[in-house]
Specification:
This protein is mostly loops. The chain has 2 helices and 6 strands; from the N terminus they run ββββααββ.
Length: about 140
């Protein structure tokens, strides 16, 4: 028994396959099988409306508008030559800049960890006066 009311034929001229789960192209609105649904597979004339990619400047990360028919590489190159806001002096600043003053320790911390007795800047491991041989007070406080 045939079910003539179910499914649709693929709109691709060379295919015309009866598909029970047809897919509708969001650009041209025609129905296709799974093998011809991609824009390139059915040579969609309306693909330019949906298949849009915006290039991004590799230096300043700004989106670069490209008109139809322009080559994205040339437009991005022109942006880099004229309009780019990239400034190498404003590169990411280092986060870990607070070096431990304990001799032999090379650790750095994001925030200053200042000893209350001697005023020195230390890492988390050497922050307590007993851990960095503090010279600021005559009696060191306990670690507890």
């Amino acid at each position: 028994m045939e079910l003539p009311g179910l499914g649709e034929h693929c709109s691709e001229r060379t295919c015309k396959q009866l598909d029970f789960l047809p897919l509708k192209c969001d650009a041209c609105g025609e129905v296709f099988c799974k093998d011809h649904i991609r824009y390139d597979d059915h040579k969609c004339s309306s693909a330019y409306k949906k298949n849009v990619q915006v290039p991004v400047c590799p230096l300043c990360n700004a989106p670069i508008p490209v008109e139809k028919g322009e080559i994205p590489d040339i437009v991005v190159g022109a942006h880099m030559d004229k309009d780019c806001k990239y400034n190498p002096a404003q590169q990411k600043q280092r986060i870990f800049t607070n070096k431990c003053l304990k001799p032999g320790c090379k650790r750095k911390e994001m925030m200053k960890v200042v000893c209350e007795q001697c005023g020195g800047n230390f890492c988390i491991k050497h922050r307590h006066p007993l851990d960095h041989d503090c010279k600021g007070s005559s009696h060191p406080t306990s670690k507890a």
